[in-house]
Write a structure and sequence with these properties.
heterodimer; A: MetI-like fold; 0% strand; B: mainly alpha; MetI-like fold
Chain lengths: 256, 255
């Protein structure tokens, strides 16, 4: 009986969610087709859908997508490498943790996007400034979670392994890494999400190419239907990438 | 002597932290003075010396005030909306189950892609910055409050009700005190979110705010002033963050 009630409640909440999305689309449709909201502010949903199909069919998104993904991969590779290495060495003693951890946390509380003009000045408008900014922004969650992961390994485990004669490598491979990995993985996932946001953001603000740049170009050309189509495209890409990373994280956790 | 110094440093990691920061500044100073083209980077000593000049550049104090004003409005509205929506959604299990996924979905979207729409809707003035700040600040506050209300023990509500507390009394004396820590945690995240939103919109396009000046200093290859302005904003961000963090620890002390 209780089970049935639970299922009914779940169905009810699903219905509310679907109803919400439907109502949103109907409102959108009515607003553009019936109530005469300006097309420059809100394009027709059907026009957006057609533009989206056209974008996907023509494949014109490929060069921009390739640039954005290349920037993302490069930035994440940099922040992952430096973040985990720096984090590991800082976590080696309690003292270095106490010296460096507040430093990283303090810098992380500044909105690093502020430094975008400096990055553009230094690395130019091309992909280099996006990679550098994305790497900087995603470095902090990764380094802090690496410090937290390695720093909070149960002392008993380390002592036990050492007293049983584990070599440094064995200690690292079979004790430290498995114990720290869950925390590090969630830091890596956060870093990835933030790197993606930073890269699309800096493409919107100042760039020569990439998906964010393309959206701005369409907005400035007042091509709103196509711009909405691109926004939807980017949102789907971002959601897919985040989903893939969450999946990898869950798998990595299970592996240990 | 040597061991005394060693002991002192071991007991005060903050001193070493300060030394690390100073070391970075020295390396930066040397790099900026002798290695890198002065068109692109300014040594910290000159940046500090130029702070007065930046402040005296006509329009800069007004721009900083404008940004602070946009942030204050965006943050206040985010807090009120986040609190109301968070309570409305969090206190009813059905609403929580059905609406929370939608809120989490909206929160996860890369909002920066719709920044041009905000500019079209609200113009290039302060209004678009405030609106963008609100959309960045509200969701984290909603999520924090829903999480905080969710942890409320049902027995507290039941016992309050059985002792004859009215709805308002329950809200004021049971829910409210339990919500305070998560409200402030949410407000801290909401503050950095709103600041991020306002700054993104400022950097994208602005006629009077700090975005205008960062563009101007960059285009004139005047890195000293640019670094100075960024330093001022960073200080502002740190101070605001610290204020909210202090408030958070202060108001969660009753636990």
């Amino acid at each position: 009986m209780a089970r049935r009630g639970e299922r009914a409640a779940r169905l009810g909440s699903r219905a509310v969610q679907i109803g919400f999305l439907l109502a949103l689309f109907i409102l959108w449709y009515l607003a553009t087709n019936r109530w005469g909201v300006n097309r420059l502010l809100l394009p027709n949903p059907i026009a957006v859908w057609q533009q989206l199909l056209d974008v996907l069919k023509s494949g014109e998104y490929l060069p921009d997508l390739r640039i954005t993904l290349t920037e993302l991969v490069a930035a994440f590779a940099l922040s992952m490498t430096f973040g985990t290495i720096v984090g590991f060495f800082v976590s080696r003693t309690r003292y270095t943790i106490r010296v460096f951890d507040p430093l990283f946390a303090g810098i992380y509380s500044i909105p690093i996007i502020l430094f975008l003009p400096l990055y553009v000045l230094f690395f130019g408008l091309g992909p280099a400034s996006k990679i550098a900014l994305g790497a900087t922004i995603s470095f902090f969650p990764i380094v802090m979670s690496t410090i937290a992961g390695f720093g909070n390994v149960d002392r008993t485990l380390v002592t036990a392994a050492k007293s049983m004669g584990a070599s440094d490598y064995q200690l690292f491979r079979y004790v430290l890494v498995p114990a720290a990995l869950p925390v590090i993985l969630s830091g890596l996932r956060m870093g990835f999400t933030i790197a993606l946001l930073a890269i699309i953001g800096s493409e919107v603000l100042a760039s020569l190419a990439g998906l964010g740049h393309h959206i701005v170009q369409l907005a400035e050309g007042m091509d709103m239907a196509r711009m909405f189509a691109y926004v939807a495209f980017v949102v789907v890409i971002a959601a897919t990438l985040n989903g893939v990373v969450s999946f990898l994280e869950a798998r990595g956790r299970r592996r240990i | 002597m040597n061991s005394a110094l060693r002991n002192y440093l071991l007991r005060h990691p903050g001193v070493v932290r300060l030394a690390v920061v100073l070391l970075i500044l020295v390396v930066w100073e040397i790099a900026a003075r002798f290695v890198v083209d002065p068109m692109f980077i300014a040594p910290p000593s000159r940046v500090v010396a130029s702070l007065g000049a930046v402040w005296n550049t006509s329009g800069v104090p007004a721009a900083l005030r404008l940004t602070l004003f946009e942030l204050a409005v965006a943050f206040s509205i985010s807090t009120v909306v986040g609190l109301v929506v968070g309570l409305a959604v969090g206190l009813r299990p059905f609403a929580r189950r059905s609406v929370m996924p939608i809120i989490l979905l909206l929160y996860g979207l890369p909002q920066i892609t719709i920044l041009p729409i905000f500019i079209l809707l609200f113009g290039i003035g302060p209004l678009s910055k405030i609106a963008f700040g609100i959309t960045h600040g509200t969701f984290v506050i909603i999520i924090a409050i829903v999480a905080g209300v969710q942890n409320l023990k049902p027995i507290l509500l039941t016992s309050a009700r059985s002792m004859g507390a009215s709805r308002w009394q329950i809200l004021r004396w049971v829910i409210f005190p339990h919500m305070i820590p998560s409200l402030f945690a949410g407000m801290r995240l909401g503050m950095s979110g709103a600041l991020l939103g306002v700054l993104l919109a400022e950097l994208y396009v602005s006629t009077a705010g700090i975005g205008h000046f960062t563009t101007m200093f960059t285009e004139n290859f005047d890195p000293t002033k640019l670094f100075g302005l960024v330093a001022m904003l960073a200080t502002m961000a740190i101070v605001l963050n610290e204020i909210v963090r202090r408030a958070e620890t202060r108001f969660s002390r009753w636990r």
